[in-house]
TrEMBL record:
GO terms for biological process: proteolysis. This is LD-carboxypeptidase. The lineage of its organism: Bacteria, Pseudomonadati, Pseudomonadota, Betaproteobacteria, Burkholderiales. One of its GO terms (molecular function) is carboxypeptidase activity. CDD domains: Peptidase_S66. Keywords: Carboxypeptidase, Hydrolase, Protease, Serine protease. Belongs to the peptidase S66 family. Residues 198-312 form the LD-carboxypeptidase C-terminal domain. Residues 38-154 form the LD-carboxypeptidase N-terminal domain. Signal peptide: none annotated. InterPro entries: Carboxypeptidase_A_C_sf, Class_I_gatase-like, LdcA_N, Peptidase_S66_N, Peptidase_S66C, S66_fam. The active site is at S134 (nucleophile), E229 (charge relay system), H299 (charge relay system).
Length: 330
């Protein structure tokens, strides 16, 4: 994977806010545009280990981002990161605080309950850049459906910055998108149809997207570029979801369908050669829309940060695909 701007690996360090309790003395070169700070919220599943959030704060500071952790981010109620009221209050506080970026600590499950109670116009009007993955797809797509505003599908604090190590490319791509530096995301593909198109980029976690069908939170995107990923979903279940999107008329209206990674499933002997490539082959047979595989995105270590709701370009050549991110993002 390559980008048209070279990721700088010496980032300005900032002191973490009080929430982390550590100072950092990294000062390398200065960026043209400050990255700004990040406010961490937990709108979905409970954080299992608070230390991972503290570590994520340190790591984000090393990447040049000050952090503040919402006061309810570590709350626990059943499997959720606090009650519905607590999680909604965290989103409301995120809109009013100073940092320009709001990141989910983790995915899991929990946003579905909250969608009707979120003030989507206030979210859009806040101008904050929201980023998360997995269950956060519900937030990304609801915001797009309700307001047309752009948000981001990418890293979460715990999974990407709170583990043993941080993936350099994931961190670099996140920083570049947040600073408006990334023009083109190029990635290798083993299987891509020829395409050269522009459209609204949308999608995310496939199962979460499917849960929005028939609700006011499902975007009605025509001529879009749909990207998808999932975890622990057998290829036949992925195919069943794609069949619904096809039979609902959604896939036929897109300019391209881009597959991220589908991970952590186990094939059985009776699958007899039926696997994800077989699903892609089937899809091409029923939907005459260009299909591209290999997008660095999903429940994987190296992931791009993608602007959901933004008009982008997509083009392929032999063994490569290029996602053209408009430079005038903000």
């Amino acid at each position: 994977m390559s980008t048209s701007t070279h990721p700088a690996h010496g980032h300005d360090g900032h002191d973490c806010d009080d929430d982390c309790g550590h100072d950092h003395g990294h000062s390398h070169h200065h960026h043209a545009k400050p990255a700004g700070g990040i406010y961490l919220i937990s709108p979905s599943s409970a954080v299992r280990d608070p230390d991972t959030v503290a570590l994520a704060c340190e790591r984000l500071a090393q990447e040049g981002f000050k952090t503040t952790v919402d006061r309810a981010a570590l709350a626990v109620h059943q499997r959720f990161a606090g009650t519905e009221k607590q999680r909604l209050a965290g989103i409301t506080r995120a809109l009013k605080q100073k940092h320009p970026i709001v990141m989910a600590t983790r995915g899991g499950y929990g946003l579905s309950r909250l969608l009707p109670q979120i003030d989507w116009r206030a979210v859009a009007d806040s101008g904050k850049r929201f980023v998360g993955l997995s269950d956060f797809t519900a937030f990304n797509l609801a915001l797009l459906a309700q307001t047309g505003a752009v948000s981001y599908s990418g890293p979460t604090a715990v999974a990407d910055f709170g583990g043993k190590t941080v993936d350099d490319l994931t961190a670099a791509l996140f920083g570049e998108i947040m600073r408006g530096e990334l023009e083109i995301l190029s990635f290798e593909t083993q299987d891509a149809d020829p395409v050269d198109a522009r459209g609204v980029l949308w999608g995310g976690n496939l199962a979460t997207l499917m849960s929005l069908m028939g609700t006011p939170y499902m975007p009605k995107v025509r001529g879009g570029i749909l990207f998808i990923e999932d975890v622990a979903e057998h290829p036949y279940r992925v195919e069943r979801m794609l069949a619904q999107l096809w039979q609902a008329g959604v896939l036929q209206r897109q300019k391209a369908i881009v597959f991220g990674h589908f991970t952590d499933y186990r094939l059985a002997p009776h699958d007899a050669g039926y696997d994800m490539p077989a699903v892609v082959k089937w899809l091409r047979g029923v939907v005459k829309v260009p299909v591209i595989t290999g997008l660095p995105y999903g429940h994987i270590r190296t992931k791009a940060t993608l602007p959901v709701g933004q008009k982008v370009g997509i083009a392929t050549e032999a063994g490569m695909a290029h996602l053209v991110i408009d430079e005038h993002q903000h």
